[in-house]
Specification:
Length: about 325
Amino acid sequence: MIIFSSSTAGSDRSSLENKAAKMSKGRIKIINLVDKIVEEANKANPYITNSNLLNLDIDKIRHLKDDAISKIVQITKNSKNDYIIDGRMSFWWRSGPVMLLELEDIRRLNPEFIISVVSGPKDVVRNLKKKKSWVDKEIDEYEMAEWSEVEVYTSDLFSQIIKKKNYVIGAAEDPKTLYDLIYHREKPKAYLSFSMAHRKKDYKKLGSFLSRLRKYLVVFDPRSVSISEYRDEDERLREKVYNQTVRRDFHFIDQSDLVIVYLNELVYSSGVDSERMHAYSTGRRVLLYFPFEGPSPFTPYFVDKLFKSEGELVNEIKRLYAKGLAKRKAARF
């Protein structure tokens, strides 16, 4: 099995992927496409590195890319291992995208699905400043945010054409999410919606609830990409990051089977309201944890089922998991 991983430079996807690979007990191997391109370049020029690769003509880079993909196909063909191919759809060069991969490249690799690993631009810049290959380059946070959108957009486009999924995953996501996407397809996929503003004092309880859910669900957690540093940021960058956050959380919902709205405090959240309405209007099942008396008429309107206790909600999740497991077993025969 091949999973293609798309991201900008500096996304820190290696941490997420390496932890998922460790969980697989050596079954998952990771191949870096750019490293393979550099290896091909070094056959003719030993001075080419990740740092100066983009000094080459883009047609030359694409030729080297074709050779690198051929080598990757040879490595992965008939292997008993599963592979994550770390690549990117484009390079960011002189304030704009330079496309690296074409649709035919994705078809040659034939991934089971694509993942787009995303980080906030401030995290990306911090990570890149630690890399030797970026030490002499200026790094603009706004441009990094734009590059991230190009990667997700292109991954979405290619995945739709080849009729495979593109899962957006935050770089700080629990590696169990990636592991379960690969190996536990009987698990329904879920987005957890909650108020980010007031939850900081109660993250321990939320974490415990999440751990219970992850036994039966593949969970996408909105905290996997932080936006807390942008409240006092330059208005242009803040607006870009905030708009991306809405689109990303909606993408999390669109790649899920259900949305769990977790309200253990009566605190208004425009984000939670928007997310549950988006989920409901796009055909996702919406489950609401609401341990309070006298809900407003609007509270259950965009909800499929309301639960007064976590236990009742978890029991419903167990039922959905069992149904998915039975369906998967039936499909084998």
